[in-house]
């Protein structure tokens, strides 16, 4: 069984890749991922505030609009290790020397600004691709659709001028016109979209009457959102899809591939079961391929995606009526 495939222009040994998280911050973690058969690793994100902090620190007279970050900048200023970015780039250099698997750098941002210039350092350090987690949430009543579109297109256009490695955009699901917007994004020359990022959840402490952080770890039920949208979008957009969220088993990997994903990211399942779980996912994928007489990923990848001519609205409607009404 051959699990080799292509994602975002990169040759990967398996479609199972490690999503951005704290497990990839050391060489030991990366070694375990490589040995377990990860197709690629998206490194833990650097925040745009960290980058701006670094630029400011290293060039006293260099103007950065960090004042606009307010509390988040203060948080970074107090918590960042003084050489965090250089350590990150060293990790990339060392990983590229040791492990023949693609290393994907990651930047987490929510504004367009000077930080984009820093992307070149990721490329120069040896990153095979860059994933930008554009963590946008539509909570501002003064933000229009055009503002959101500009944020994404300005960021992508600038990055494409600065770097030549594949660019992957990790997006959320909070867009009124998700299908149309993803199609437009895919026309900007990006290599892939990652569906979806997960904003930190909120909760309420009822005794303190305070808003607090909700749980960080995901659950297996998280798969249904990226699965649906991967199936809907994979034939309609002009770039690859990395499906992310709720992947715990080999069957979950197979489902995402059938829906049309070109790679499948896994995070919470590794926190729960250990990094070695990647080998289980790969073995289960191979066994499924064997049982179903497939020799290569390309023989079944996307075979269950929604055809461009298919109308999903009727399927959704009947599905809803069947499960949420008395009509059987
Ligand atoms: C502990 C932890 C740290 C994470 N850190 C990042 C990060 O730095 N950047 C990012 O884009 N996503 C981050 N994520 C989100 C994951 O990359 C992924 O999108 C999300 O966990 C959904 O996948 P899962 O269901 O397999 O966990 C993190 C998730 C966890 C659980």
How does this structure look, described?
40% of the residues lie in helices and 16% in strands. By secondary structure, it is of the alpha/beta class. It has one domain: TIM Barrel (Alpha-Beta Barrel), CATH 3.20.20. The strands form 3 sheets. Strands 3, 4, 5, 6, 7, 8, 9, 12 and 13 form a 9-stranded parallel β-sheet that branches. The protein has a two-stranded antiparallel ribbon with strand order 1-2. Helix 6 (145-162) links the parallel strand 7 and strand 8. The structure holds flavin mononucleotide. Residues 19-22, 44-45, 106, 108, 133, 170, 197-198, 216-218, 222, 244-247, 266-269 line the site of flavin mononucleotide. Flavin mononucleotide is lined by residues 19-22, 44-45, 106, 108, 133, 170, 197-198, 216-218, 222, 244-247, 266-269.
In short:
The protein has 328 residues and is an alpha/beta fold. It has helices at 27-35, 48-58, 71-79, 84-98, 119-125, 145-162, 178-186, 224-233, 250-259, 268-273, 277-291, 312-324, and strands at 5-7, 10-12, 16-18, 41-42, 46-47, 103-109, 129-134, 167-171, 192-195, 202-205, 210-213, 240-244, 263-266.
């Amino acid at each position: 069984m051959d699990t080799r495939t292509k994602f975002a222009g990169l040759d990967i040994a398996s479609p199972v890749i490690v999503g951005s998280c704290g497990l990839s911050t050391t060489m030991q973690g990366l070694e375990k991922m490589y040995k377990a058969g990860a197709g690629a690793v998206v490194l833990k994100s650097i925040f745009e505030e960290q980058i701006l902090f670094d630029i400011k620190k290293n060039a006293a007279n260099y103007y950065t609009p960090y004042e606009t970050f307010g509390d988040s900048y203060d948080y970074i200023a107090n918590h960042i290790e003084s050489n965090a970015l250089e350590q990150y780039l060293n990790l990339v250099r060392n990983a590229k020397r040791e492990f023949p698997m693609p290393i994907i750098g990651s930047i987490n941002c929510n504004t367009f600004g000077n930080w984009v210039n820093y992307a070149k350092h990721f490329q120069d350090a040896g990153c095979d691709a860059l994933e930008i987690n554009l963590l946008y949430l539509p909570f501002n009543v003064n933000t229009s659709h055009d503002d959101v579109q500009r944020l994404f297109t300005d960021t992508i256009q600038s990055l494409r001028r600065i770097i030549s490695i594949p660019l992957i955009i990790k997006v959320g699901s909070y867009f009124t016109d998700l299908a149309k917007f993803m199609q437009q994004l895919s026309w900007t020359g990006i290599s892939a979209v990652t569906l979806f990022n997960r904003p930190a959840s909120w909760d309420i402490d009822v005794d303190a009457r305070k808003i607090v952080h909700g749980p960080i770890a995901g659950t297996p039920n998280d798969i249904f959102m990226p699965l649906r949208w991967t199936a809907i979008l994979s034939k309609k957009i002009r770039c690859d899809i990395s499906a992310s969220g709720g992947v715990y088993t080999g069957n979950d990997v197979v489902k995402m591939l059938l829906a049309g994903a070109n790679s499948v990211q896994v995070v919470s399942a590794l926190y729960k079961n250990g990094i070695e779980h990647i080998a289980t996912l790969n073995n289960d994928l191979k066994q499924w391929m064997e049982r179903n007489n497939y020799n290569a990923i390309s023989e079944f990848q996307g075979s269950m995606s929604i055809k461009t001519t298919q109308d999903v609205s009727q399927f959704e409607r009947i599905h809803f009526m069947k499960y949420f009404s008395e009509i059987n």
